[in-house]
Amino acid sequence: MTVLSTPGIAAAPPRKPFLSLQLRLMVALSLSFLVLFIVLFTVLLRVLETQQLSQAQGDLRHVLQKVASQVNGTEVAGLYGLGNELVAEYWEDPSYLKNFGGLADISDTDPRAFPFAYVQQGRTYELVASAAGRGAQLPAAPAALAAGLNPSTRGAFVTSAPLHQNGYFLIGTVPVKDAAGQIICAMGVKFRIDYVYNAFLQVKARALQVMVALYLVLLALFSYISRRFARPVATLAHEMQAIREGDYQRNFSHLRRGPFGDEVSMLTEVFEDLLSRVARREQTLVREVQALRIEIDLNKREQQVSEIVDSQSFVSLREKARAMRERRAKAT
Fold first, then answer.
1. DSSP string covering 219-236, please?
2. Could you tell me the pTM of the whole model?
3. DSSP string covering 86-144, please?
4. Which residues contact 157 (CB under 8 A, 6 or more apart)?
5. What does the entry list under GO cellular component (predicted)?
6. What's 255's DSSP letter?
7. What's the pLDDT tens digit per position in 64-121?
8. What whole-number distance in Å separates Cα of residue 38 and Cα of residue 103?
9. What's the rounded Cα separation, in Å, for the pair 57 and 186?
C-alpha cells in the first residue's frame, strides 16, 4: 500500500545577523579612503625624501668641486717616491701644506662637510689629509672610496643612499689627476645630512596630523552621506515589516519625493502594486470564505432537518398526528 504524503510548508531559513546598509556603506567608504590616504601619504613622503636627498647630493657635489679645485694633482704627485710610495714625512712637504692646508677652512665654512684626501696602499685605503688632520679615520664606505680611485669614474661619485654612522651621511669622492691624466689621489667629503631627516620627520609628523584631521572630517561626511542614501531603504524596510505584520494601509508617497526617480522609487512602485493586489486578493478571499460559511450553515441546517424528519420518534409522532386527524374526521 502506497502512502501519499502531502508536501508541507518549507521551514523559514535561519535569520542572519543584521548589519545595516548605512553601516556597510560607511565602512566601505571609510576603508576605501583610508587605503587611498595611506598610499598618498606613502608616495608623498617618498617624493619628499627623494627631493630632500637630491638637494643634499647637489650640495655635496658643490662642496666636492670646491675641494677638488684647491688640489693640484701635479704638485701632489711630488709626494710619491720611486716605488709609488708616499715619501717619509710627506705631511711636512710644502706642496702638501699648499694643497691640503685649506681643508679645515672648508669644514669651518660649511659644518656639514668633512673633507679628506686618501690614497690606496695595496688593498687598503690610507688617509693622507683631512679637516681634522691625519689622525682622523676614513668613513666606512668602500664603494665610494673605490669609485674615487677608479679611472672609469666620470666626475664626482656620490652615494645614492645615506649611511648611518652616528648620524646620517652622504659620501662623495672625486679623483685627483696630474697633467698626464694619472690618478694621484682622491678627495672625498663626508657630508652630514641629519638636517634633511630632521626636516623630513617634522614634515612627516605635520602631514600625518593633517591626514588624520582630514580623515576624521571625511568620516563625519561619510556618516552623513551613508545615512542620506540608506534612509529611503531603511524606511522601505520598515514599511515592509509593517505589511508583514498585517497592516496593509501603508503610505509610500514620502519615498517618491524629488525631481528624479531611482531604484528606491522603482521598488516603491512595485511594492505598492503588489500591496494593492494582495489587498484585493485578501478581500476576495474574505468574501469567498463568508459565502462558503453561509453555504456550510445551510447544508448543516438541511442535514439537521433531514435527521429530525427521518428519526423514529418523528415518524411516530407523524403517524399519531395522522391518526388523530382521521378520528376527528370520522367524528364530524
1. HHHHHHHHHHHHHHHHHH
2. 0.56
3. BPTTGGGSHHHHHHHTTHHHHHHH-TTEEEEEEEEETTEEEEEEETT-TTS---S-HHH
4. 144, 147, 148, 172, 173, 174
5. plasma membrane
6. G
7. 888 888 888 888 877 775 446 676 777 777 888 888 888 888 888 888 888 998 888 7
8. 46
9. 18
Q: Which amino acid is at 181?
A: G
Record the cell numbers describing residue 261, joined without a space.
526617480
CA 16 vs CA 13, 20, 26, 315: distances in Å: 9, 12, 20, 69
Phi, psi dihedrals of residue 158, rounded to the nearest 5°: -130, 130
Q: CB of 187 within 8 A of CB of 64?
A: yes
Residues contacting residue 172 through CB under 8 Å, at least 6 positions apart: 57, 60, 61, 63, 64, 144, 156, 157, 158, 159, 188, 189, 191
One-letter amino acid identity for 249? Q
* Residue indicated by cell numbers 706642496: 95
Cα 154 to the chain's mean position, in Å? 44
Rounded alpha-carbon distances, angstroms, from residue 295 to 298, 302, 306, 309: 5, 11, 16, 21
